[in-house]
């Protein structure tokens, strides 16, 4: 029984360290990229896991709304049906990648406990913020990225 309890404590400590590193790296990344390209709630003021989960979910929802907005702008600027079709395919593939990558990084829900929803939301939000910045750079590129990138 002691071994199981020790392993459980070690796993919990490992998750806390990983979460702290994720939050620290996220903060560093946010500073490097300036502010998030959408309104972000300050989750640091919450103390219960339920409130932290809800706050992280709200930030993810804001990121998803901003992603949809910039995506709609970029797709509307595409010059032809082929470019629009390609961008739609890329975006669908990116969403599948994001979801699977975060599922891999965060781990299975059944192993994550009450912190799992927050960890998943933070992961998805971070990847979504990066994608928003990528798509924002494509605004005004009528023929996709090749229209804006020098080869």
Describe the structure.
The chain has 151 residues and is mostly helical. The protein has a single domain, classed as Substrate Binding Domain Of Dnak, Chain:A, Domain 2, CATH 1.20.1270.180. The chain has helices at 2-32, 49-76, 81-106, 109-112, 116-138. It is elongated. It starts with a helix and ends in a 13-residue tail after the last helix. The relative contact order is 0.14. Residues 16-22 and 24-32 have low confidence and may be disordered.
Q: Work out the number of β strands.
A: 0
Task: Give me the CATH fold name.
Answer: Substrate Binding Domain Of Dnak, Chain:A, Domain 2
Largest sheet: none
Order of H and E elements: HHHHH
**What's the number of structural domains?**
1
Kindly report how far apart the N and C termini lie.
Answer: 62 Å
* Shape-level CATH architecture: Up-down Bundle
Q: Can you tell me the overall shape?
A: elongated
Note the total helix count.
Answer: 5
Which terms would index this structure?
single chain, mainly alpha, Substrate Binding Domain Of Dnak, Chain:A, Domain 2
Summarize the structure.
With about 150 residues, this protein is mostly helical. It is built from five helices and no strands.
What's the SSE blueprint?
Layout: H1 2-32, H2 49-76, H3 81-106, H4 109-112, H5 116-138
């Amino acid at each position: 029984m002691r071994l199981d309890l020790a392993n459980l404590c070690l796993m919990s400590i490992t998750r806390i360290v990983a979460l702290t590193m994720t939050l620290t790296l996220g903060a560093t990344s946010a500073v490097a990229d300036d502010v998030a390209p959408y309104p972000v709630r300050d989750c640091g003021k919450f103390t219960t896991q339920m409130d932290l989960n809800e706050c992280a979910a709200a930030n993810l929802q804001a990121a998803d709304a901003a992603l949809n907005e910039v995506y709609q702008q970029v797709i509307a600027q595409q010059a032809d049906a082929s470019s629009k079709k390609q961008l739609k395919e890329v975006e669908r593939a990116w969403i599948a990648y994001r979801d699977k990558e975060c599922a891999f990084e965060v781990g299975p829900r059944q192993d994550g406990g009450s912190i799992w929803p927050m960890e998943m939301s933070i992961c998805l939000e971070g990847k979504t913020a990066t994608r928003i910045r990528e798509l924002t750079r494509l605004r005004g590129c009528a023929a996709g990225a090749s229209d804006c990138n020098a080869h």
